[in-house]
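Key result, reporting period 2: structure in, sequence out.
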């Protein structure tokens, strides 16, 4: 198998409990994500990795594939590592379990980057920021990259902050889109790395790779998503999908 897509989905959530099962136009959110992932041509298989029987039962009911994982995991990365540990697979795509607007092209982009360049071990996405309110929003993760599109840093703070003082500088602003592809070898390596100071300071797991000296390829995408963390986010997704149907 070349590429598998894993959707980590836990039942508990600080701000929106059981959000994976939240109803969106008659379907649970996890089904929207699963069906979008199945449209990605690069994926040989899609699996939901969950810590709860209720989510597994729902996935089973719509014909999806789900596996139960340990309740002790503290991150989606740990959850998907458990699932793929014994699998014969080259690339794993970590598809966020709270982004029902994920576009299949986003999955294809991060996976093909690793398949086509054997030197890469990890890839993710960025999107251009055009709204300064979004730029200054700590809930929106920003990213800066080098000339070869490798991540220099991720932050919840405005990045680069100089733009707050001199907005005439012609520097593009990018937000990070939280989908990742890893080679299996690197994913197992990553799980064994100690949490880094920057990771803990920003609460951003991907900084662990950078601080330990690994490179993350960052590809630009034209597609946007909405990460559902609150009821307001969920309402926004529902409104977007209703408008899409009506148009």
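The corresponding designed sequence is given below.
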């Amino acid at each position: 198998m070349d590429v598998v897509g894993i959707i980590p989905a836990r039942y508990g959530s600080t701000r929106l409990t059981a959000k994976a099962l939240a109803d969106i136009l008659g379907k649970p959110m996890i089904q929207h994500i699963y069906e979008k992932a199945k449209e990605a041509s690069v994926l040989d298989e899609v699996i939901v990795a969950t810590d709860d029987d209720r989510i597994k039962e729902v996935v089973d009911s719509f014909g999806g594939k789900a596996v139960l994982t340990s309740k002790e995991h503290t991150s989606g990365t740990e959850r998907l590592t458990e699932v793929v540990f014994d699998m014969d697979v080259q690339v794993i795509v970590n598809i966020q379990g709270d982004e029902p607007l994920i576009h299949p092209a986003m999955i294809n982009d991060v996976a093909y980057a690793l398949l086509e360049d054997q030197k890469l071990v990890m890839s993710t996405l960025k999107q251009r920021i055009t709204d300064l309110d979004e730029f200054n929003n700590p809930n929106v993760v920003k990213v800066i990259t080098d000339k070869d599109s490798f991540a220099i840093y991720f932050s919840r703070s405005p990045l680069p902050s100089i733009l707050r003082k001199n907005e005439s500088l012609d520097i593009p602003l990018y937000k990070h889109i939280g989908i990742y592809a890893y080679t299996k070898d690197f994913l197992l390596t990553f799980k064994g790395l100690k949490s880094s100071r920057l990771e803990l300071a920003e609460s951003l797991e991907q900084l662990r790779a950078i601080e330990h000296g690994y490179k993350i390829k960052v590809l630009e995408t034209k597609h946007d998503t909405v990460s559902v963390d609150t009821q307001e986010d969920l309402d926004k997704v529902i409104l977007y999908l209703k408008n899409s149907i009506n148009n």
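The longest strand covers residues 174-183. DSSP finds nine helices and eleven strands in the chain. This case is discussed further under Risks and Mitigation.
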